[in-house]
């Protein structure tokens, strides 16, 4: 994976971002399946991919290294799976990715894995249940931010994988 020589370096045209792609996914759903395949294929092509390999515990604050990696990436691939919105970590990552895309034109490529893009966009199906649970636990402003990010990504053209 990334080595010490991956630090941000300057080029004739400016600064080079540390990561080409930030990979956002729900580990329990996709770590050993589609996310693994995407990661390995990109690595074979010398694409610098940030993939979080640390276990994220419920209730913990999102790691600053994740936020820094989002800020220091040219693109984000978001693997949206049935339980993606169950994780506040995933939703916080997604909101940050969307915020960065507005500010700095980060490219977002959604992968709809066993989910319908319209269910993501409208937070129906499994997403409705997950957002209802979040509304019980988190402030309206936080949940609204997450909902906006899901709607944005659900409305973005991406790849659909429904094979089980």
UniProtKB/TrEMBL annotation:
Pfam families: TIR. The keyword NAD applies. InterPro entries: TIR_dom, Toll_tir_struct_dom_sf. PROSITE patterns: TIR. This is TIR domain-containing protein. GO terms for biological process: signal transduction. Keywords: NAD. Gene3D superfamilies: Toll/interleukin-1 receptor homology (TIR) domain.
